[in-house]
Amino acid sequence: MTSRNENIRAIKEGSKEVILSENMIEILRLLNEFGFCDIRHIVKRFDVKKTVAYESMRTLIQYGLVTNARVIKYHPRAYFLTPKGIDLLKLDLPFIRRIPLNIFEHQLAVIDVYLTLRKIHPEAIWVSERRLVRDKYSSDLKMNDHLPDGALIFPQGYQCDIEVERSLKARNRLEEILIGYGLQQIYREVWYFCSKGIMPALNEFASNMPYIKIYNLSEYMI
Question: Are residues 187 and 222 in the same domain?
Fold first, then answer.
């Protein structure tokens, strides 16, 4: 994924040098934040053709920085970092040994939402769930406290929580989460990106909670 105007960096790996484009380095950082992604996300994030995206991923795999796996039959392969890829850039989130099937499609939807929001709110900083989970252990949060799928931090200093809901949680659990958001002081708003079929129920749950904003997930998918 290189062009004549794109910067190239040589990164030391022991006595060797690994030559990467700036985009390839950003791919490694993207995988660090989300754990994994598929080729559609590379195409969307870097605004390149699919053939160019595949070429970059082949290079990263050849360097041993990235690996891939077929998680769901007929679905594009998922890419994730190797320990070598993490160590090369001194990345700060944990290595994943395998991609859990039960979170796979949900996480892909979260990345879709992130990429769309990145275009709408380029001024905001995204904080991934993986980073939130890591930071939870160095904060005052209890281990059973609910964490969102991500957060947006705006230059003005306020934060918005991001939740992606493809199916409706049990009533008691959903009410517990929504009320919990009303009691905390970290997030100004909570943005729910929901499948169309569950929007009426969620709207009913949140009818007296002005801090909850509900959006149609399908409009934010890539």
Answer: yes
Integer Cα distance of 41 and 37 in angstroms: 6
Q: What pTM did the predictor assign?
A: 0.89
Residue 67: give the domain boundaries.
1-99
C-alpha to C-alpha distance for 61 and 80, rounded to whole angstroms: 10
Q: Copy the structure tokens of residue 13.
A: 């790996």
| Domain-ending residue, one of 34, 67, 99 | 99
Which DSSP letter does residue 166 get? S
Distance from C-alpha of 203 to C-alpha of 209, rounded to nearest angstrom? 10
Q: Which of 99, 115, 147 is the last residue of a domain?
A: 99
Gap between the Cα atoms of 176 and 206, Å rounded: 12
Distance CA 30, CA 27 (A): 5
Q: For residue 198, give the CATH number of its domain.
A: 3.40.1340
As for how many domains the chain has, the answer is 2
Phi, psi of 60 (to 5 degrees): -65, -35
Q: Which of 120, 111, 126 is nearest to 41 (CA)?
A: 111
pLDDT tens sequence for the chain (222 residues): 444 445 666 666 665 777 899 999 999 999 999 999 999 999 999 999 999 999 999 999 999 999 999 999 999 999 999 999 999 899 999 999 889 899 999 999 999 999 999 999 999 999 999 999 888 765 555 545 788 999 999 999 899 999 999 998 888 888 889 888 888 878 889 999 999 999 999 999 899 999 999 999 999 999
